[in-house]
Specification:
This protein is mainly α and about 270 residues long. The chain has one domain (about 1-265). About 75% of the residues lie in helices and about 0% in strands. It has helices at about 1-20, 25-50, 60-75, 80-90, 90-95, 105-135, 145-170, 170-175, 180-190, 205-210, 215, 230-265; strands at about 55, 55-60. Strands 1-2 form a two-stranded antiparallel sheet. Helix 2 runs antiparallel to helix 3, helix 4 runs parallel beside helix 7 and helix 7 runs parallel beside helix 12 (about 230-265). The radius of gyration is 20 Å and the shape is globular.
Length: about 270
């Protein structure tokens, strides 16, 4: 109950802050317009030059797949890595460890509260704009789409938080986790289908994206394709498997991190 009250308080406070000071919303909106918008225009031109189809995929499917990646990125799960690093570098982590709350839970709920308002507003408005401009694939009109999309969005969020939490916890040993962060972040960007739609991946790259935690965290980009109708349970199963594995890694890393703080911090 204590953690639920804490989560509600953090999320409520941050959402109210985002509403009264919409700077983050403006930045996120400009970011998705600049990156996703320009990319979709380029893809439209490329598909037009190839008679509307590449590898058996049309622009409509690729556009929605790429859009789902950028929409998901508005949640900014990646920021938890640097937040943990800053806590370690400033010594704030020692203060938070002494509080009667779980440090990682606090950081996770803070991250959710920081991004949820921008995600809801931008996704709602951008989805309407995309529907009006290019239409909706038939695969998104089935009864299966919404529940499975929400499910993989939820699992992908947990998986993303675990991946970036692992990167952040490394700060207890190497302090500056930026090089590791860049490698992991770029792996997720590439395998998640940010600039190259998943349907256009070469076979080997597709398999790596399918079975690695980096690609699995972005399975929302797969939901638009017709193959999702038959293999969604397999992909969600892969996500769940990685959630279990990475949860164990986070548990042991965090336990050793607390011991390190106890030894060095007294």
């Amino acid at each position: 109950m204590k953690e639920i009250r804490l989560a509600r308080k953090i999320i409520t406070t941050l959402v109210k802050d985002r509403i009264h000071y919409p700077g983050r919303l403006i930045v996120d909106t400009m970011g998705i317009l600049a990156r996703c918008g320009i990319l979709l225009v380029l893809y439209w031109y490329v598909f037009k030059m190839n008679n509307g189809s590449i590898n058996g995929t049309t622009f409509l499917f690729s556009a929605w797949s790429i859009y789902f990646y950028f929409s998901f990125s508005v949640l900014r799960w990646r920021d938890i890595s640097r937040a943990i690093m800053q806590d370690v570098q400033t010594g704030n982590v020692e203060v938070l460890f002494s509080k009667p709350i779980s440090y990682l839970s606090y950081r996770v709920w803070w991250q959710i509260g920081s991004g949820i308002y921008s995600y809801i507003v931008i996704t709602f408005l951008a989805s309407i704009a995309l529907i009006l401009m290019i239409g909706v694939p038939q695969t998104m009109m089935t009864r299966l789409f919404i529940p499975t999309y929400v499910l993989t969005l939820f699992c992908g969020s947990i998986l993303s938080l675990l991946i970036y939490s692992i990167v952040g916890l490394l700060a207890f040993w190497i302090e500056d986790i930026n090089p590791v962060f860049w490698i992991v972040d770029k792996a997720i960007m590439i395998l998640g289908g940010s600039y190259l739609a998943v349907s256009l991946f070469p076979p080997l790259m597709y398999q790596i994206a399918l079975y690695s935690p980096f690609g699995a965290s972005q399975f929302v980009t797969h939901t638009v394709y017709s193959s999702w109708q038959t293999n969604w349970y397999q992909l969600v199963g892969i996500q769940c498997a990685w959630i279990v594995v990475l949860s164990v890694i986070v548990f042991f890393l965090f336990r050793h991190a607390k011991q390190k703080v106890s030894v060095n911090g007294g």
